[in-house]
Amino acid sequence: MHRTQIYLQDDLHDTLKAKARSVGVSMSELIRRTLEKDLQKDPLADARAYFKRLKPLESFADVNAEDYVRNIRSKSRLLQAGDAS
Predict the structure, then answer these.
(1) What letter does residue 60 receive in the DSSP assignment?
(2) What region does 54 belong to: left with phi over 0, alpha with psi -120 to 50, or beta?
(3) Which residue, among 7, 28, 6, has the nearest Cα to 17 in the 3D structure?
(4) Phi first, then psi: what are they for 40, rounded to 5°?
(5) CA-based angle 55:61:62, to the nearest 5?
(6) Residue 85 has pLDDT above 70, yes or no
(7) For residue 15, which of 28, 32, 25, 27 has the smallest C-alpha distance?
(8) What pLDDT band is residue 36 in, cutting at 50, 70 and 90?
(9) pTM of the model
(10) How would residue 77 be classed by pLDDT, with cut points 50, 70 and 90?
(11) Distance between CA atoms of residues 61 and 16, nearest Å
């Protein structure tokens, strides 16, 4: 294990201290657990879960999203300019 020093804003320190006390662990242990949990997250899975919860606007309910985006991209002057180079 390595020892490190970090600086926390006063309000964050107070919140961390209170949370550690309520959970019954040291502040160091709470920081380690929180970091381990956060580092194990899969950002791609989080993004997919976020978008699965979204519901389309009523006006787009019957629109295939991939076809819609493909159509917009086919008309993009910026994307077409990129193909020329």
Answers:
(1) G
(2) beta
(3) 28
(4) -85, -10
(5) 145
(6) no
(7) 27
(8) very high
(9) 0.52
(10) confident
(11) 44
Closest residue by Cα to residue 13 from 28, 25, 3: 28
Mean pLDDT of 71-76: 89
Contact 74, 82 (CB under 8 A): no
* Number of residues written out for the chain: 85
Q: Where are the domains positioned within the chain?
A: 10-84
Interatomic CA distance for residues 31 and 5, integer angstroms: 12
Query: Euclidean distance between the first and final Cα of the chain, in Å?
Result: 52
Tokens 């006006």 -> residue: 59
Structure tokens at 85: 């180079």
